[in-house]
Amino acid sequence: FPVTINRGVSSAADNTVASATSSATVWRKVNTNMIDTSSIFTTNKMVLQTVIDDVSTPATVYIPIPFACTVNKVLTVLGGAVTVADSVVTCKNSAGSSMGTLTIAYSGSAAGDIDSLVPTSNNTFSADSKMQIDTDGASTTAAKLYVTVYVTVTA
3-class SS at 33? Predict the structure, then answer.
């Protein structure tokens, strides 16, 4: 998109910035090799979130995917302790193929427990699709599960 910071400067052309040296100020176009990108960490990165109301009840939630992307990581935070058995949470792509599972362990569980999944297959999405997250509900004691999905936008 056009850079318009130079409006009102009669000697500058559109889409240029001032570049000062010890002897003069010149107006020039900035190209990509002039930009230091070493400190840019979130280019094309997005975060999508949802909540499973009760990980101890079999359920499915969907996350709308508005852009083409690759899922890099799924992170969950447990809202409270669960008992009796582990709950298994399965993450699926738009075709229903599994990206992998997270085990929400009941032994020693407590609010704030974190689990993560780094999928290596079935983790690419086209624009205007959905991600499916299922819980088998095998544990008991109602507890929310907060889900954050880290993606890289590809188009």
Answer: helix
CA distance 66 to 26: 42
| Three-class SS state of 125 | strand
Q: Which residues of 124-145 are buried (b: 16+ CB within 10 A; e: fewer)?
A: bbeeebebbbbbbbbbeeebeb
Rounded Cα distance, 3 and 73, in Å: 35
21 is written with which tokens? 């040296």
Give the pLDDT confidence of 32-79 residue by residue, as tens digits: 787 777 777 778 999 999 999 999 999 999 999 999 999 999 999 999
pLDDT mean over 113-131: 98
pLDDT of 8 > 60? The answer is no
**Verdict on whether the full-model pTM lies above 0.85:** no
Q: Who contacts 152 (Cβ-Cβ below 8 Å, separation ≥6)?
A: 44, 45, 46, 69, 70, 72
Residue 77 phi, psi (nearest 5)? -130, 125
Q: Which 3 state secondary structure label does DSSP give 132?
A: strand
